Amino acid sequence: MKKGKKCLxxxxxxxxxxSMAGCSLQNADLPPWLEQEVCQHVFDDGEILxxxxxxxxxxxxxxxxxxxxxKIVVExxxxxxxxESEEIPATTTSPGMTAGMYCGICGxxxxxxxxIPQISTGGNTTVGDFKPGWLD
Length: 136
Known about the structure:
Elements: H1 3-20, H2 32-38, E1 47-50, E2 58-63, E3 70-75, E4 82-85, E5 96-97, E6 100-103, E7 109-112, E8 115-116
Antiparallel strand pairs: 1-2, 2-3, 4-6, 5-8, 6-7
């Protein structure tokens, strides 16, 4: 038997003895060259460490269900979902917005969409009603 096979056999026998004693052999305890021979990793679904956004990658932490080894998986940023917006005319009670494009997920303006100031009534609180003296 070759030296590598003898070492692997010794490690596996040691793992069985430890397991019978209620202990576990973590990959962190193994030399890197043995890690793959001992455990064919089966990672869980993971826990979200950082949520992916439209422009920033996310991170998911996963744990091997067999040996406890951990790894971090990068979830790519989603990218913007462009939606069109129609012009919203300004009124005397609220500002408006020009037509344009925005992201339907995060709301970021992608193009256009400039604020239109609220229409001023010139200090008059009544709009559309004629008051004597306005034209004087």
